[in-house]
Design a protein that fits this description.
Helices cover about 45% and strands about 20% of the residues. The protein is built from 11 helices and 12 strands. It has helices at about 5-15, 20-25, 30-45, 60-90, 100-105, 105-120, 130-140, 200-210, 225-235, 245-250, 280-300; strands at about 50-55, 55-60, 95-100, 125-130, 145-150, 155-160, 170, 190-195, 220-225, 240, 255-260, 270-275. The strands form 4 sheets. It has a 5-stranded mixed β-sheet with strand order 4-3-5-12-6, with helices on both faces. Strands 10-7-11 form a 3-stranded antiparallel β-sheet. The chain is rod-shaped and about 100 Å long. InterPro entries: LysR_HTH_N (IPR000847), LysR_subst-bd (IPR005119), WH-like_DNA-bd_sf (IPR036388), WH_DNA-bd_sf (IPR036390).
Length: about 300
């Protein structure tokens, strides 16, 4: 049995409107055309679907049962159309994000909040990893996007440079250097210093800078997270050099943050799988992150 879609549409519209005339108006055809479509459908099904009671068109029991299936079909089509529209506007789907800890504890959460407000139905997951893990797992397509400390290249991924931002020096508010507008490497001569982990690319740059300038710090402690370094600074144990995002989000009342004047910045790249079409959600999230980096950079210039 080959049902005519136009007949099914006419049947559903008659059921919804309750009359041939109203159905004809909705379908933008004549009333006799609707009557003919219903008549042909009844002949095809070998069923009597409607009966007349005075001026009323009353569906038979068979029509009521048939309508339930027909309506489910149309609701399904409407759902497909709605989903397609939401996909066009990136309102549904999922976004798997990997990020280094310095960002996942600070601006990434802000960016996710912005994205969620615009697309509340999107399923978002965030995992905090180090840079090598982020690069490797994004290359393996375990994540849709990652944010890592800048590298020249890595197989299997496409890198997008985020705007550069200055690193900052965090120190107890009781330290004399806290009164300065900015901190230079020589200002930290002899001070107790809290370092980031030895495998942190930022740590390598910092150590190289002080070695080149022959500035000796009192190497007190090291920690893998900038957030932990700030906590140790807040306890009065020493000074540290960290990214500006973690400092902005986590510095307490007893911590002073100052720009650190040096020849390097806190450089971050967005990481995406190569040979993989960029989704609208990824593109939008990267732009949100770029805007946050630009905002951070401009705030330090004032």
């Amino acid at each position: 049995m080959q049902l005519n879609p136009r007949q099914i549409e006419a049947f559903r519209t008659v059921m919804l409107t309750g009359s041939m005339t109203a159905a004809a108006e909705r379908l933008k055809v004549t009333q006799p055309a609707v009557s003919r479509l219903i008549r042909d459908l009844e002949a095809e099904l070998d069923l009597r679907l409607f009966r007349r009671e005075g001026n009323r068109l009353v569906p038979n029991h068979e029509a009521t049962i048939l309508f339930a299936d027909v309506d489910r079909f149309y609701v399904g089509l409407d759902r497909v159309a709605k989903t397609a529209n939401e996909l066009r506007h990136a309102n549904v789907g999922a976004l798997r994000i990997a990020s280094i800890g310095a960002l996942s504890l600070s601006c990434i959460t802000h960016a996710i909040s912005i994205l969620h407000t615009a697309h509340p139905a999107v399923d978002i997951s965030l995992e905090s990893l180090n840079t090598p893990q982020t690069l490797d797992l994004v290359a393996g397509r375990h994540f849709d996007i990652g944010f890592a400390q800048a590298v020249a290249e890595f197989p299997g991924v496409r890198l997008t440079q985020m705007p550069s931002v200055e690193t900052v020096c965090v120190m107890p508010s009781t330290y004399p250097i806290a009164s300065r507008d900015f901190i230079e490497p020589r200002d930290l001569e002899g001070l107790p210093f809290i370092s980031l982990g030895r495998n942190n690319p930022q740590r390598l740059k910092i150590d190289q800078l002080f070695d080149d300038l022959n500035v000796r710090r009192q190497m007190l402690l090291e920690t893998s997270l900038a957030a932990s370094a700030i906590g140790l600074v807040e306890s009065g144990l020493g000074v540290s050099i960290v990214d500006p995002f973690t400092a902005t989000y986590l510095s307490g009342r007893n911590v002073v943050t100052r720009p650190f004047k040096s020849n390097f910045c806190f450089d971050i790249v967005a990481v995406q799988p190569i040979h993989h079409q960029q989704s609208k959600l990824c593109k939008e999230f990267i732009q949100i992150m770029i805007d946050l980096f630009k905002k951070q950079a401009s705030s330090r210039e004032k």
